[in-house]
Amino acid sequence: MPEQWRNFLDDLPRELPRPRDLGSPSAAEISAKVRPKALMEQDNPAERWVPIPQPVLEWYRRIGRPTPLYRARLLEKRLGTGARVYLKREDVLPTGSFKLNTAIAQAYYAAVEGRTTLVSETGAGQWGMSVALAASMFGLDAEIFMVKCSLDQKPYRRHYMELLGAQVRPSPSDFTAFGRGVLDRRPDHPGSLGTAISDAIEYTLGKDSAAYISGSGVPHVYLHQTLLGLEVQAQLEGLYGEAVGEAGRGDHLVACSGGGSNLCGLIGPYLSARAGGADLRFLAAESTAAPRLTAGRYTYGRADLAGYTPQVLGYSMGADFVPPPVHTAGLRNHHSSAVVSLLRNEGVLDAVAIEERKALEAGRLLLQTEGILVAPESTHALAAAIDVVAEADAQGLEPVVVVLASGSGHLDLQSYSEVLRRP
Q1: pTM strictly above 0.85
Q2: Which of 6, 41, 406, 412 has a CA-to-CA distance to 98 between 20 and 30 Å?
Q3: pLDDT tens digits for 299-309?
Q4: Domain limits for position 274
């Protein structure tokens, strides 16, 4: 298991565009108040390698890191492909999600700084579950704003958080002025990550000793998630004695993309190799319900709707865009992160939008062949990888295809059932 996180910001094809921060108070001032100082410093670390604190390492080992790299041989057989398809199995972690990797780190830094409460948003609920568990590891309270339509679709994730003592509220929320304003204008608003981030930050500003933490979208989260790519590197080199991309097979790394943390965690450690000529392709799978990378505009925008976060240059559907209440809540973002958008705009990252039914059909196929049930978000990556395999077969290629199984689908059975039973 890695004992250091990999800072890949210097491996980006060019420097990140500066954010715009015109509010009063500014987003930088708000961040300084609500976020632990160590996390803000990790947004632009000086070191190439950032040591993982010993208490965080101990918890990583306890939860089961490193996670398995699993070859899906029966899926390969069903597809009739010569490609080698691997799943990076983050679904086996205690909360059923890769989100725990950064939740543990952020909870640790909040506790060291003397914060007593973690506050955050959650879409599908996997991040909220991870925040609740990480808070309990370090003796902290947790308060979570969950996207309303997801709270209705996935009640068992709420139950999990509450079992750990977390307070869970729907977003838009009547606990905040922002949320009340949204509900006054549209009482049936389904919520989005933009509303939930706004609710969480406003709530943190009014609560002493609370820390706001993010599940995605900011560099320190991507830093923590480089565990994913670092473990894959070690595991594949152990199998083949060579890194993916070195054998001229046209190898692929595939992950879904909402806020971009599982995608950046997987591909970040590989950016320098690709820049050096490795035959390696990166693919982001997003939802057709919020197709920022494939149909959005490259422009400045915010992750939240209330104006607490800075404007960053990214692919956007616009601040007024309200994603439909699909079951892939983790992909219902209106604006993409600066890092993911830069990689896309510079041609380093490819992207594809996957329709929900097609994605969940791929998930059903994986269950039928390998006995593995992944989250709806992860099925988008799986469906995209199946298309990659079909294209490779048509070209007579036999690449290694690594798919990030970012989450478990065992609390998403209602989603599978509702979508796949539609005529």
Answers
A1: yes
A2: 41
A3: 999 888 888 99
A4: 64-96+226-420
